[in-house]
Design brief:
mainly beta; 696 residues; 7-stranded mixed beta sheet
Length: 696
């Protein structure tokens, strides 16, 4: 009987194989809107479809998997209105590195995403996981370096191993209330990740796996669930921005090296009993500089517990530190400071300063111990005779530069002054022979005596409007000073203020000026013209204009004041006093020009507001010279704010010979595409083309 039985069994096996082959033969792959799906069309199938790859991972074409896919990819809930899409197969979109970037929206019917479904899809930048999703496999977004946005549904319980590993563009993650487990390296290497929070309330994470957030070097904000019981090994290693952290009361275990190389400064623990941990949990974290906050009544327990007792300060939650504030002289970095009890610091002179070289940047704050001090004051002569300093940047916390601060810093070429600076002390930059330019901030109100005296290389200076007095010797012996702008509001120019400025050929004195001191322009033999805008003759001394070529230098004065100037002390030495073309703004063609006393002119604004040259459009041409009342004026400058906000102009033709394009001259000319820069240009100010397509 054995032979018939064996024969029957063999027939059954053959029949079974044939049936299986028939079923496999019914497996169908279709493409719908660029995405491939498989389903079975046998009569008794469950009528479900699976998202699959375009090319199988073991074929040579896999490197081009979905290379033609880009933009919004929406997975439908059904294919052919029959087959419900319930799953995304392993490697379905894996390694999509070709073609355009894409984002994915999933239907509510997806219940499972298999491992590596999007692994190394470097073109994926956004995906919304659907509510109803119950399971995702390992590695599903591993290496998705362009991914910036992802939604986690409440139906998902676990973020498994390597889920977001290496997603270097992901800035934040909001965990749903359903998540209870974060697996090994789930977010490791997410270098842009800054915060881990919850969707609308507390999360329910109970376990954080090994290296789950390792090397998240931007992570600074993590909110743990009250139900968290375990933090795995290396979980937050190298999270260098993670400075403040709170651990929940139910936490029972912290794995080795969990917070190694982190930026931890303050840790709050809510566990009433210190849990046993190894010292390497905080490896390479200086616990002596960290503060530990513990529940009320638990301070002694933590002070006596291994590892926990190493924290420099242990306080009860809500307790305020009472550590004394350090005061007195301290060297911090390369510089010396006097630390004050009000947490301010004064930058001190010290003999060590003479060894300073190169660029010096004074910080706005310094830290000593646990306290941060604001640097708001400078010692007199703090860097005096530091001849090897080449540049200095001062913080905005300093409002006054002390007397002699940089005196005889002969190697100093560049200084960045604080935006809120009010005072430059006497002889502060005296003898800085290499200093060529300095931008004085708008906040400045006082320039001390001889502050820039002997700055032999200084070529130009603009005095801010808050300065009322140009003190004695302010720019004495600035041999190369060729351009000085004095604001309206200056009332007094002191003795020798511009004496020895041999390169100065022209100067305009504001209408507000009331007095000039002794020898103000002594030695300025190259002066071609001097313009005074004051209707009332400023008082002067017989020596005020000594050594000026008063027989050839033209003195331009307001209309109707020529006789008064000719009769005034000091002013009467000028033999050529003229009233024409002084401080006159004229329209010449479509543009406005300001006429200067020395026969030059500059293009200026129509109105200094949003309506400036509102009717100008297309190509414009700046004249090279003007004829006005019989006088010829050479146009040598595009003035401050001249075309500020003129969005209609597209091309500007400038004269072939021109000296300066001033600050904000073409600022906001958003459609300006072409302008010729004259080869003779001496000054192109750094904000001249701000907010344009040019030079930015």
């Amino acid at each position: 009987m054995k032979k018939p039985i064996l024969l029957f069994a063999a027939l059954c096996c053959i029949l079974s194989l044939l049936t299986t082959q028939k079923a496999l033969a019914k497996l169908v792959t279709v493409c719908y809107n660029g995405v491939y799906y498989t389903y079975s069309d046998v009569d008794n199938a469950d009528k479900t479809a699976v998202v699959t790859c375009q090319y199988e991972s073991d074929t040579k074409n896999f490197d081009y998997n979905y290379s033609g896919l880009s933009g919004d990819v929406v997975i439908p809930s059904k294919i052919s209105n029959i087959y419900t899409v319930t799953k995304i197969r392993y490697f379905a979109f894996g390694y999509k590195k070709q073609g355009g970037v894409f984002n994915v929206t999933l239907p509510s019917t997806i219940e499972k995403i298999e491992y590596s479904a999007f692994s190394n899809a470097t073109k994926l930048y956004s995906i919304r996981l659907n509510e109803g999703l119950k399971e995702i496999g390992d590695y599903i977004f591993n290496g998705c370096s362009a991914l910036t946005e992802v939604y986690i549904p409440s139906t998902l319980k676990e973020i498994p191993t390597y889920t977001f590993n290496g997603c270097t563009s992901l800035p934040a993650i909001a965990l749903s209330a359903g998540i209870e487990f974060i697996g090994e390296r789930a977010f490791a290497g997410c270098t842009a990740l800054q915060s881990v929070k919850s969707q609308g309330g507390a999360n329910n994470v109970k376990t954080i796996g090994e290296s789950a957030f390792g090397y998240c070097t931007s992570l600074y904000d993590v909110r743990f669930s009250n139900g968290l019981t375990s933090i795995g090994e290396y979980a937050f290693q190298h999270c260098t921005k993670l400075e403040n952290l709170s651990l929940p009361a139910k936490l029972a275990t912290i794995g080795d090296f969990a917070f190694s190389y982190s930026g931890l400064k303050t840790l709050t623990v809510n566990m009433t009993t210190p849990i046993n941990i190894n010292a390497n949990v905080f490896n390479n974290v200086d616990l002596s500089q960290c503060t530990l906050y513990v529940p009320k009544g638990c301070k002694d327990a933590y002070k006596n517990a291994d590892v926990w007792k190493k924290f420099g300060t242990i306080l009860e939650i809500g307790e305020v530190p009472v550590e004394p504030i350090a005061t007195g002289k301290q060297k911090i970095g390369d510089l010396w400071y006097d630390l004050h009890e009000d947490l301010t610091a004064k930058l001190l002179w010290h003999n060590d300063n003479k060894a300073l070289t190169g660029a010096i940047k004074v910080p706005a704050t310094v830290t000593f111990g646990k306290y941060t001090y604001t640097v708001n004051e400078m010692d007199e002569g703090v860097f005096s005779k530091c001849s090897n300093i080449t540049s200095v940047t001062l913080p905005n916390t300093i409002t006054e530069i002390s007397a002699e601060a940089f005196r005889y810093c002969t190697g100093l070429t560049k200084v960045t002054l604080p935006a809120a600076l009010t005072t430059i002390g006497k002889t502060a930059f005296n003898g800085c022979t290499a200093l060529q330019n300095i931008a004085l901030p708008a906040s400045l109100t006082e320039i001390g005596r001889y502050a820039f005296g002997g700055c032999e290389s200084l070529t130009s200076v603009t005095i801010p409007s808050g300065v009322k007095i140009v003190s004695a010797g302010s720019f004495y012996h600035c041999f190369k000073l060729a351009k000085v702008t004095l604001p309206e509001g200056v009332t007094e120019i002191g003795d020798q203020a511009f004496a020895g400025c041999y390169a100065l050929t022209t100067l305009t004195l504001p209408a507000s000026l009331k007095s000039l001191g002794l020898l103000v322009f002594y030695g300025n033999a190259e002066m071609v013209s001097l313009r005074s805008l004051s209707q009332i003759v400023p008082t002067a001394d017989n020596t005020t204009f000594n050594s000026m070529p008063v027989s050839t230098c033209i003195l331009y004065v307001p209309q109707g004041t020529k006789d008064a100037y000719a009769a005034a002390e000091g002013w009467g030495h000028f033999t050529n006093i003229q009233e024409k073309g002084v401080n006159e703004k004229i329209k010449y063609g479509p543009l406005y020009y300001q006429l200067n006393e020395n026969g030059t002119a500059y293009v200026t604004y129509e109105t200094k507001d949003a309506n400036n040259y509102k009717d100008l459009s297309g190509e414009i041409t700046v004249e090279d010279k003007l004829i006005y009342h019989g006088f010829e004026y050479k146009v040598n400058e595009v003035g401050i704010d001249a075309f500020n906000g003129c969005t209609g102009i597209t091309k500007v033709n400038l004269p072939l010979i021109m000296d300066e394009i001033s600050n904000r001259a073409f600022k906001g000319c958003t459609n300006l595409a072409e302008v010729n820069i004259p080869s003779t240009l001496s000054f192109l100010m750094n904000t001249a083309f701000e907010d344009t397509k040019l030079f930015n």
